[in-house]
């Protein structure tokens, strides 16, 4: 993996001289399989709405991000996400939380429904500050998440704020290894979030 990052640095340096090089574009996405499942509101005790993940600046870019030094992020030109990272991360978070929280109705954020029993819900917000590889051969996902609780009588209020930082060594070479490690790390983050929300429930 370190050889890949060294090659990326060389390519960045020579970018002005490489216009004539024809490189095939590669697209990546999280592999997380989607299993057939269903859940009825009558079978659940609470509702959790997962808001669209907010990524800082250039991280929400189709080019897979690489941290070059402490103040520089490079977005790949020919190794791209197959969809917008915020959409991909939100979908994976919702699915992971849905599977990890069988007594909850876990959905992607929706407008408040007028029926009284749908006006009481929890809300999860993510801010992702790092979503990239680095020159040391690591995958890095860091940021924070906030849990809110909305009730018709008390309105929306903040329950808790949690910072997280996961810098994980990449085992396999290339962008395949980076993407696989980012996916596993994001799933592990959401599994930890699921446990924390269960404990924080009012």
Automatic annotation (TrEMBL):
Keywords: Signal. Residues 1-21 form the signal peptide. InterPro entries: ABC_trans_aux. Residues 28-193 form the ABC-type transport auxiliary lipoprotein component domain. Pfam families: ABC_trans_aux (PF03886). PROSITE patterns: PROKAR_LIPOPROTEIN. This is ABC-type transport auxiliary lipoprotein component domain-containing protein. It comes from Pseudoalteromonas atlantica (Alteromonas atlantica).
């Amino acid at each position: 993996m370190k050889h890949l990052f060294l090659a990326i640095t060389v390519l960045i340096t020579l970018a002005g001289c490489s216009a004539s090089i024809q490189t095939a574009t590669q697209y990546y996405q999280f592999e997380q399989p989607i299993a057939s499942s269903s859940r009825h509101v009558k079978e659940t005790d609470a509702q959790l709405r997962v808001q669209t993940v907010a990524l800082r600046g250039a991280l929400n870019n189709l080019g897979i991000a690489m941290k070059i030094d402490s103040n520089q992020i490079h977005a790949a030109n020919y190794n791209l996400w197959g969809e917008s990272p915020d959409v991909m991360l939100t979908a994976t978070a919702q699915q992971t939380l849905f599977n990890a929280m069988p007594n909850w109705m876990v959905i992607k954020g929706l407008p408040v429904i007028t029926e009284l029993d749908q006006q009481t819900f929890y809300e999860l917000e993510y801010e992702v500050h790092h979503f990239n590889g680095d020159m040391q051969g690591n995958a890095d996902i860091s940021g924070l998440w906030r849990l809110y609780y909305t009730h018709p009588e008390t309105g929306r209020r903040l329950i808790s704020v949690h910072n997280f930082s996961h810098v994980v060594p990449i085992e396999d070479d290339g962008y395949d290894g980076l993407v696989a490690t980012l996916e596993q790390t994001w799933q592990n983050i959401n599994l930890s979030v699921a446990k924390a929300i269960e404990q924080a429930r009012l």
